[in-house]
Amino acid sequence: MNIQKRILKMITRANWVLLVVAGLAGLLWAPPAFARGIIFGGLIVTVNFHLLARTLKKSLTPPHLASHNVILAKYYVRFTISGVIIFFLISKHLVDPLGLFIGLSVVVASIMLATAVEITKLIFKEAV
């Protein structure tokens, strides 16, 4: 398996693992609104990541190549829906904004984790 597929597979799994770990930590040690922020933020960003991956896979795999305009339109629709959901959650005081920010950082954290793991593999592979 090439490095890009390994990184994508690890990010996809790490998204859910980090969401569960952060959500449980929030439920155990933080106020309820903060924990809800972590959970809802993590769900929003993780679902968006999976939908984007599915859109790109379907659109860029022959013989069904899609126009880049279609891909961008779907992206902006998801972006707008996410913005409306985030606005609703904050305006109705259902979540703590800092918790929401932490939850929205789940995909970034999993990307950094996957990159660090692959760099470590490359360094130790060359050292042997």
Please describe the structure with a list of short key phrases separated by commas or semicolons:
single chain; 128 residues; mainly alpha; 5 helices
Describe this structure in words.
The two termini are 21 Å apart. This protein is mostly helical. The mean pLDDT is 92. It has 5 helices and no strands. The protein has one domain (3-127). The longest helix is centred in the middle third of the chain and has 29 residues, at 32-60. 24% of the residues are buried. Helix 1 (3-29) crosses helix 5 (106-127) and helix 2 packs parallel to helix 4. It is flat. 86% of the residues lie in helices and 0% in strands.
Portion of residues in beta strands equals: under 5%
| Chain-averaged pLDDT | 92
The Cα radius of gyration reads 17 Å
**In angstroms, what separates the terminal alpha carbons?**
21 Å
Structural class: mainly alpha
DSSP summary, beta strand count: 0
Order of helices and strands: HHHHH
Whole-number count of domains:
1
Oligomer: single chain
Please give the share of residues in helix: over 70%
Envelope shape? flat
